[in-house]
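Structure tokens please, single chain.
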Amino acid sequence: MKKMILSIAIILVTAGLAAPSAMAREMRGDAMSHRPGVEMRGPGHGPRVSKPMPPVGGTAHRYGMRFDRRPAGVVVNFGGINFIYNNGVFYSAIDRGFEVVRPRVGMIVPSLPMGHTVIIKGGNKHFVHNGILYSPMRRNGTVVFRIAGFI
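Here you go.
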């Protein structure tokens, strides 16, 4: 009986080491870790990939997400409407909360989001982040960035 219990304990310990918890995989960054937009199903079924709206600003924020509290960021006024801008994410006041929204062409922001890419378009330097095209421009002696379009 003791040998049987010992054998079961060894199997359980070995299984625990061979299949680390989801938290451990996520912290370690394994290819097996859960990623947004991928639903892991059982073995032999493969992952079922859902196609939610793309993440915004390198975060897990998606267009349409709502928050009860005011997010951190700077106020950007465009067309008489105040938006909050924080590292590539734009929020608009909706009802009693804030919703992640797609920026509008022509909006001007004070800084580029982290992780942007530099591109040359029409001989001019532009910046891209999460499909949003930013063009540098001077305003009152400082460089700001205008939303020029989407890629």
